[in-house]
Specification:
Mean pLDDT: 87
Shape: globular
Strand content: 35-45%
CATH architecture: Beta Complex
Pfam families: GFA
Strand order of the largest sheet: 8-9-4-3-10
CATH class: Mainly Beta
Keywords: Metal-binding, Zinc
GO molecular function: carbon-sulfur lyase activity; metal ion binding
Organism: Eragrostis curvula (weeping love grass)
Structural class: mainly beta
Protein name: CENP-V/GFA domain-containing protein
Largest sheet: 5 strands, mixed
CATH topology: Metal Binding Protein, Guanine Nucleotide Exchange Factor, Chain A
């Protein structure tokens, strides 16, 4: 189900073997995280409900997954070019984190950037309200 303000964003990895579509508003809240993984990758992402994300046919064969720590987050990346264009975040295991830089140009109208202190994950998770971003919007 999409709200009237949702648009379809397309995106994927550098070599274009992993492609996807996601339905969400044209304005999103993106998280700049300093956890060990996000900091090394320079990842900035926004979170959507899993039901709003669609992986293109054939893309799955080019994906592999890395986990660490609690193994809740599923860091998916392309086996060919190594880009993480989306993943399942620890903060929102019922959602999908979309890498802002991997969204094709033209559909994101505004990105509000917020910092997430992933080095102090437990405390930040409670204060941030990030868990609500993977929940469907109220009609």
């Amino acid at each position: 189900m999409s709200s009237c303000s949702d648009v379809v964003h397309s995106g994927g990895c550098h070599c274009r073997r992993v492609r996807w579509q996601v339905e969400t508003p044209a304005s999103v809240v993106a998280w700049i995280c300093n956890c060990s993984d996000c900091a090394m990758r320079g990842n900035t992402h926004f979170v959507v409900p899993a039901a709003k994300f669609r992986l293109d046919p054939g893309a799955e064969e080019f994906l592999t997954t890395y986990t660490f720590g609690t193994h809740t987050a599923k860091h998916t990346f392309c086996k060919v070019c190594g880009i993480t264009s989306f993943y399942i975040p620890r903060s929102n295991p019922d959602g999908v984190a979309i890498t802002v830089a991997c969204v094709d140009a033209g559909t994101l109208a505004h990105v509000e950037y917020r910092n997430f202190d992933g080095k102090n994950w437990e405390g930040m998770f409670e204060r941030s309200g990030i868990s609500k971003f993977s929940k469907p919007a109220a009609e």
